[in-house]
TrEMBL record:
One of the protein's GO biological processes: RNA modification
Protein name (record): PROP1-like PPR domain-containing protein
Composition-biased stretches (Polar residues): 13-29
Annotated SUPFAM superfamilies: TPR-like (SSF48452)
Domain of life: Eukaryota
Chain residue ranges for the region called Disordered: 1-41
Keyword Nucleotide-binding recorded: no
PPR repeat ranges per the UniProt record: 142-176, 243-277, 370-405, 473-507
Keyword list, A-Z: Repeat
Residue span, PROP1-like PPR domain: 330-429
Single GO term (MF): RNA binding
Pfam families hit by this protein: E_motif (PF20431), PPR (PF01535), PPR_2 (PF13041), PPR_long (PF17177)
Length: 507
């Protein structure tokens, strides 16, 4: 498979270098590098590793401009390794410019590291370009570059491309290793094909990785994401020495499928086997429990109540149960708070004005409001009839925080105006302000407002649109019939009822 990269002008522009200085340049002889990374050799004191990296690259760029050719692969390999460790893609592009084309083509170590850097930083297309120019990749048995590229595609959600590379590996005779299979299985889970997953399962057993915990953990996750939780559990039961990832994979798999009883069984087995559940496991369970006081006590006894993810899950747990005092207590005890923490406590107060107080505290703190935050405060304004405050917050959302309104935000605004009886304004939001087609939640909010305030004309428009968007939702038909009934439009009531009969929605 020859992958044609998509457009990536910005990165390519960074790679363009004036090669006019390359004519007649001399070769500089460097001393053979030691295993110590190149950055350590610099005598200048730098505040950060990134500063040191920048200094070294700048020195090399200066040398190149003077006509000095740098051709030692060890130098570039060390620099690319540092760029990868620091996730310094801009510095990596500068290093890429300095590498002679023949070295990238012929030196598998340097080119593989460059592929990994681009792929891990979200530039899989550029990584594929470098990969395609590697002349020795087929003849070498190493799967390093293949793994890096597969991982880059899988992490960016281009699962089909990742799978295609895996099958290309087999065609070109490159043997997969223990790092290949977790990456491929992640892509397979993204596609959701259990048939392909089973084929890869057979491949990894054939290659001798049937007992590898690292590979089997990925296999559990793949089966769960493909919808076969039973096979996932079968694989889990076969893992010889389970680690945290094994337990958490099985736990989150059950939770993802709504199997809370089975998830709690796994949690108990973890404790019984002496595996202390970590914050990931505890917060995952808490986020879905209806009754979690016992687990809260368990977390306190182990000193986990201060863990950010655990505390966030506890706030959600208690707010779902309507125990606002307990939710506030957890929030007030938190040493560290992030956007999720503030969103959880604001959402817990979505029916009282305290939510706005928390919102203002959030703005004064270090956390930045996001789209979820504004859904909560706009809903609060709608519930409390605070039209002017809702309008102010909606404007603030995009102008100050750069949050582009989504469907939920427009639904909140329609609900805000609709509850206040401002039906013309609510309708105007849909037909004049929205930059995309309104969905069922938006039209549904308008229809309900028309029912509350008895506006049959706008209600009729909303109802007709909902019949197209949600043809099987009988609630919309019933609501429009009630609106017609309030307006004494008996014939329209019967007409809508007949529509329900024709669609098989009324028994």
């Amino acid at each position: 498979m020859k992958k044609k990269p998509r457009h990536h002008e910005q990165l390519k522009q960074r790679q363009i270098q004036d090669n006019n200085n390359n004519n007649g340049i001399t070769s500089l002889s460097f001393a053979k590098p030691s295993p110590t990374p190149i950055l350590i050799g610099k005598q200048t004191n730098h505040r950060t590793k990134l500063d040191a990296l920048d200094s070294v690259i700048t020195d090399l760029e200066t040398s190149a401009k003077k006509g000095i050719r740098i051709s030692e692969p060890e130098i570039f390999a060390s620099l690319l390794e540092t760029c990868y460790t620091l996730r310094a893609i801009d510095h990596g592009v500068r290093v890429h410019r300095l590498i002679p084309p023949y070295l990238l083509r012929d030196n598998l170590g340097v080119s593989s590291k460059l592929v990994r850097l681009y792929a891990s930083c979200g530039h899989a297309e550029v990584a594929h370009e470098v990969f395609d120019r590697m002349s020795k990749r087929v003849s070498l048995s190493s799967a390093f570059a293949w793994n890096s590229l597969i991982s880059g595609y899988a992490e960016s959600g281009q699962h089909e491309d990742a799978m295609a590379l895996y099958f290309q590996m087999a065609e070109e005779g490159v043997k997969p290793d223990r790092f290949t299979f977790p990456r491929v299985l992640k892509a397979c889970g993204g596609i959701g094909s259990v048939q392909i997953g089973e084929a890869i399962h057979r491949d990894l057993v054939k290659e001798g990785f049937g007992d590898d915990v690292y590979v089997l953990n990925a296999l559990v996750d793949m089966y769960a994401k493909c919808g076969d939780i039973v096979k996932g559990r079968n694989v889990f039961d076969l893992i010889p020495q389970r680690d945290y990832v094994s337990w958490n994979s099985m736990l989150t798999s059950y939770l993802r499928h709504g199997l809370l009883h089975e998830a709690m069984e796994i949690f108990r087995l973890m404790v019984r086997d002496g595996v202390e559940p970590d914050k990931v496991a505890v917060s995952s369970v808490l986020a879905r429990l209806k009754h979690g006081r016992q687990l809260h006590g368990w977390a306190i006894r182990r000193g986990m109540e201060c863990e950010l993810s655990v505390a966030n899950a506890l706030i959600v747990l208690y707010s779902k149960r309507g125990e606002l005092r307990q939710a506030c207590f957890v929030f007030d005890q938190m040493v560290e708070r992030d956007t999720v923490s503030w969103n959880a406590i604001i959402s817990a107060h979505s029916r009282d004005s305290n939510g706005l107080r928390y919102f203002e505290e959030m703005r004064l703190g270090n956390a930045r409001p996001d789209g979820i935050t504004f859904v909560s405060v706009l809903s609060l304004c709608a519930n409390k009839g605070m039209v002017e405050e809702g309008e102010r917050l909606f404007s603030l959302m995009s102008k100050e925080y750069g949050v582009k309104p989504r469907m939920e935000h427009y639904a909140c605004m329609v609900n805000l105006y609709g509850r206040a009886g401002m039906l013309e304004e609510a309708y105007s939001v849909i037909v004049q302000e929205m930059e995309f087609e309104a969905g069922g939640t938006v039209w549904g909010a308008l229809l309900y407002a028309c029912y509350i305030h008895g506006n049959a004309d706008i209600g009729e428009v909303a109802g007709k649109r909902l019949f197209e968007l949600e043809p099987d939702n009988e609630h919309n038909f019933e609501l429009l019939m009630r609106i017609y009934g309030k307006a004494k439009r008996t014939e329209d009531v019967e007409r809508v009822r007949q529509m329900m009969v024709d669609r098989g929605l009324e028994t």
